[in-house]
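Running co-folding for uridine 5'-triphosphate.
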Amino acid sequence: MKNLVSLCSPSHHESRLRELLLSLLRETFTEFFPGCQLLPFGSSVNGFEISGCDLDLHLELGENEKEDLMEENKDTEEKKVTVKDISGDNRGEDNEELEEGASPEKDGDELDMQVTAENESSDDDDDDDDEEENIAPGLSLQGLSHEEILDVVGRVLRQCVPGVHGVQSVPSARRPVIRFQHKTSGLRGDITLNNRLALRNSSYMRLCSDLDPRVPQLVYTVRYWARVQQLAGNPLGGGPLLNNYALTLMVIFFLQTRSPPVIPSLIRLREIADNDTSQVIDGWDCSFVSDGTQCPASENQQSLSSLLSEFFSYFSSLDLHSNILCPRDGLLMPIPVSSPPPTWTEGFRMGPLNVQDPFELNHNVCGNVSTRIARRFTTRCSAAAKACRSPIFLLRSSSRPWGVNLLIQPSPSEGDKAEGADIAISIGKALLEDVFAAVKTVLVEVLLCGCKQDSDKDGVGVKSNEETAHVVPSVEELNIEDKGAEVKGENMGEDGIKNERKRESSDDIQGTSPKKRRIEEDGSDLVADRQKNVIEKSPCKKGNPSKVHKNQQAEGALSMRIDVWHHIWEGRRKVRRSMQGKVEQGIKLETAVSRALSAGTQEGGRPIMQITATTRLGTDGSAILHFSPDSDDYGCSATFFHFLKIFLPRMVENVLSGKD
Ligand code: UTP
């Protein structure tokens, strides 16, 4: 999570480019709208800046400036400068810096190149509207609506700022905005008018980010996760997804409501502030302490991973539809709200997800979120919470994702799911159901999977592990070093590994727990016994095999559901090598290898994968096993099937031949 912050943060070069673009814009706007202020807000200043994020700007014209503009208009009629003049000679110092290429001691060679490219690109702007009437400084904004002012701003951007293109006005947005892009760097920007509330909420977020290092780390991780899960980041502004501001407020709210809190509520920050820092914007109380060092340090000592895990479990179980998250008070407000309702509820747009803006109290920052996205948020939180609880979350590996990487894997859509695999097993003289039983034996006994047979009509299946016992000595007995990695890392908190011991009923999934298996005291080989038993029990045994095969084909395939609990295919060769000579080759050795690989990992909650296996006869008389994943939270099924393709035929042959 710490790495994620530094990996996502913009480079020095990118930050410098933003600064230069901002000064260029400032200079141009000041020329047209003397006394105006162009101030950044949003992620560029709120402590959650990521590489490639847009540049949100607030253009403050103010009534006085508008009046001044009127006056100036009269004087400047005669000294109007054309657009071409402005974009050429009349640019200020920063602009010159951009044009000439930034000085190496200031910006470095890389920036020089960027800037040169930018100026080149400004000459061949292809999409600018040359037809548009030229604009000149000193025009009056008096009497113009916001929309019209935005239009003027758009024209200034389009005509007078070199390197800027794709200027587009979005007057229908909640806060009308002008979008633009810096051509060479691809940097996008938004300019809104008189959006001082956004300036203030950005300062509030900055304060939260500075209060505790866990705040930015959690915010970056959750924001990254939400983007990968297609929950947040409406690329074009509008849309049904959460915006980053809303998501960040959810993290802030979560941190305010821990026990003890990681950060104080806004109300508490207001109490800490001196009276003279009181600020009211658009009628809303926007005061809070400006100096974070005045706040006492949090008493909450939870680790980052524990907070992350808790974030997901908290939101997976919260009834979003029936509550309003209020980061101002750090409280959850049930819907319907108490009577008499607070005045802000008037105008508050209730939706499937309700998060109150901490300043503009009647604004639901998630008002745009659709029911489908709200539902997806809950299900993805629930999946992430499970991933955080899974044993492999803290189990380091170089061959598969673990830790935060597990959460930020793109979640496979239905269409992307691993297709499944066909594995052919030559059956010789055996019956199809013998092969089926042998496969089950290998999966349950050797690979420690849980297994439930779907079509155990005639008692052909093997017994569950509860009824049987293991034939191999435990790892401890073998005195073999556990080659499976240890669970390293921090305690996962209240929803952590502890809870994983809660298991599904063994009535439902037979033999799910190798921990429950007993080692037969006399060490007798029950696998072979069972095979004998299976074959003897088979009603097909005495019949005509070809007839049986035909029947089986007619009746449909034999199938079973498999729960895979451990990554028993990973690092197998290495562990096997370490055991060779100590354990008899074949099933015994392979079982011991699986047990070694599973040691240190725990079962609980949900298996790594759930698979359905069906068996049918192939046209060449071999048994065809089709494995298809029902659930595959960690995207391991393809690797597992690849392993089975080689492992299974060999092991099934051993079982059928009674070698082991
Ligand atoms: P974003 O949602 O873009 O957040 O809103 P962000 O933190 O800047 O993240 P990026 O840019 O997507 O990386 C931008 C700013 O707009 C204001 C907030 O100041 C926010 O930081 N905003 C957004 C509001 O005031 N209210 C809203 O409902 C949404």
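Result summary
Residues 72-129, 456-555 have pLDDT under 50 and may be disordered.
Residues 12-32 form the longest helix (21 residues).
Job closed.
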